[in-house]
Amino acid sequence: MEEKIRTLGILQARHFSASLDAVKLQTGRVTERIRIDHPEAAAILAFSDRDHLLMVRQWRYAIGCETLEIPAGKVDPGESAEMCAGRELREETGKSASRLVEIFSYYPAIGYANEVIRIFAASGLHDVSEPEDNDEISGAEIVKLGDVHDMILSGRIRDGKTVIGLSVFQARMERGEIADTFFS
Q1: Which of 8, 37, 91, 129 registers the highest number of CB atoms within 10 A of its CB?
Q2: pLDDT, position 133
């Protein structure tokens, strides 16, 4: 176990905070740790049918390029992860889902952040509005599921939540944990 000795510095931003702490390790040695406090997030595997996935293109400042990934966003105060998933799907794609099922949750950066991402699978998509999130999303597109797997293996898709979500969804389908009726 590690014991915090003191906070050396704090960065407070609108949606998260980061602190640099001096900590004492179980061996007695003192070192520094960064901790990012980040809100929970929701991500959505939005299936237009059994063989097609709705994805979004988004510029990611930290890596300096546009990515193809599943819709996602942070949970707002007082909002559940499921409500967030529905809102983000609508804002980023203009779609709503008649079925929304949580399939997995994970910590994307467990070494320095407390963020948890809850991944949902959605089906029964229908148009409800124009996409609203034009500041971040450059477009939405439907991709053949077989092509998504090839795009991951070739490195064209490198987004963690997308890779994890598809892998977990496929495993749950193979185990029979997600019924065929999910797509009807």
Answers
A1: 91
A2: 62
Residue 82 shares a structural domain with residue 59: yes
Q: How many domains does the chain have?
A: 2
Question: HSE (CB half, 13 Å, CA atoms) of 46?
Answer: 30
Do 64 and 120 fall within a single domain? yes
Specify whether 11 is located in the same domain as 100. Answer: no
| E strand residue ranges, the chain | 3-12, 17-24, 30-37, 41-49, 52-60, 65-69, 72-74, 95-106, 117-127, 137-144
Structure tokens at 4: 């915090």
Beta bridge partners of 49: 52
Q: Are residues 56 and 84 in the same domain?
A: yes
Statement: the pTM of the whole predicted model exceeds 0.85 = yes
The pLDDT tens digits of the residues spanning 56-80 come to 999 999 999 999 999 999 999 999 9
Q: Facing residues of 17 across strands?
A: 12, 37
Instruction: Tell me the mean pLDDT in the region 121-133.
Output: 87
- For 88-118, the pLDDT digits (tens) are 999 999 999 999 999 999 999 999 999 999 9
Domain around 72? 41-183
State CA 180 to chain mean position distance: 24
Tokens of 170: 């496929």
Say how far apart CA 77 and CA 12 lie, in whole Å.
17
Same domain (yes/no): 23, 106: no
